[in-house]
Amino acid sequence: MRYTILLGAALFLLSACGVSNKNVLAMEQSYKTEIGTLNEQLRNSRDEITRMQLQIAERKGENTALLATQDKYLKRLDELEEELDKAQNQALTKQSSLGDALKAKNDQILSLENQIAAIRGALKQELETLQQIAKEFQDSLAKFPVAQYSVEVRNGKIVLALTESLLFKSGVSNRIEPNGQAALKAIGTLLNANPVLLIQVLGHTDNQAASRKNLDSWDFTSLRAATVVRSLIDTHDLGANRVISGGRGEFDPITSNETSEGQSRNRRVELSLFFPPEDLQRKITQLAERK
């Protein structure tokens, strides 16, 4: 509107100055066109301003949302850092606890290894001692026929096997022959020289009832074992508290009873010599204390 008024004033002045109507009309048309263009530009500018204002408002809203999101993530980041610190502290505590537990386990393992070493050492010492004593028994019985006795170290014991032919007449259970007495004297001497040893005496026989004059095999072998024990105690001064005896009948043969030779070997008395359990425990304790 303002541009139209200005245009009218300009045309009036031009007319008053003697400018022809034709020229005035041409100028009017030109001005109208220019004014239209300016009005269009003005409208466009206003629209652009309005659009930009809307964008600014939208951006402000976006910024607010972004700031809210940023605050949310910063808060979550703080929470995660706190959780991380807590987890690290827990890990350090657990690591320390595991370290203490591991040390305790290592100490326990070391203690067990020392105990095992002590047990092995004590068993080795005992075996060496038994082997030495067994050799002494072997030497003391060397004057008797080899077929009538045997000496071996077996399962932590010295086992002396004396056949019937060395100790008794066939079928006799209560009287030892002179050669048997001589053998028991040699054995008793060594037993008295090693007073720590305990003695188990067991009688054995074959499966032939005729060889024991039809006596029950349990009774027959028990009587023979008791006769040997009585000889060791009464004749060779062996302490009675060191000896136990019994009979195994025909039920623990060392070979087949199918031959007369096998039957003869099965008719025997075995003396098992061993250290008392507390003696082994004492050695284990001594060795463990040295570690």
What does this structure look like?
- This is OmpA/MotB domain protein.
- Pfam families: OmpA.
- Keywords: Coiled coil, Membrane, Signal.
- The chain is an alpha+beta fold and about 290 residues long.
- It has two domains: about 1-120; about 140-285, OmpA-like domain (60s Ribosomal Protein L30, Chain: A, 2-Layer Sandwich), CATH 3.30.1330.60.
- Helices cover about 65% and strands about 10% of the residues.
- It contains seven helices and five strands; from the N terminus they run ααββααβαβαβα.
- The chain has helices at about 1-15, 20-140, 165, 180-195, 215-235, 260-265, 275-290, and strands at about 150-155, 155-165, 200-205, 245, 270-275.
- Strand 3 (about 200-205), helix 5 and strand 4 (about 245) form a beta-alpha-beta unit.
- It is rod-shaped, with a radius of gyration of 60 Å.
What keywords describe this structure?
291 residues; alpha+beta; 60s Ribosomal Protein L30, Chain: A; 2 domains; 5-stranded mixed sheet; 5 strands; OmpA-like_sf; signal; OmpA/MotB domain protein; coiled coil; OmpA-like
CATH superfamily of the largest domain: OmpA-like domain
The description of the largest β-sheet is:
5 strands, mixed
The end-to-end distance, rounded to whole angstroms, is: 117 Å
Number of strands: 5
Question: Per CATH, which architecture of the largest domain?
Answer: 2-Layer Sandwich
User: How many structural units, i.e. domains?
Assistant: 2
**CATH C-level label of the largest domain:** Alpha Beta
CATH topology of the largest domain: 60s Ribosomal Protein L30, Chain: A
Q: From the helix content, strand content and strand pairing, which structural class follows?
A: alpha+beta
Strand content: 5-15%
**Helix count from the secondary structure assignment:** 7
Signal peptide: 1-21
Domain OmpA-like: 155-277
Pfam families: OmpA (PF00691)
Coiled coil: 28-140
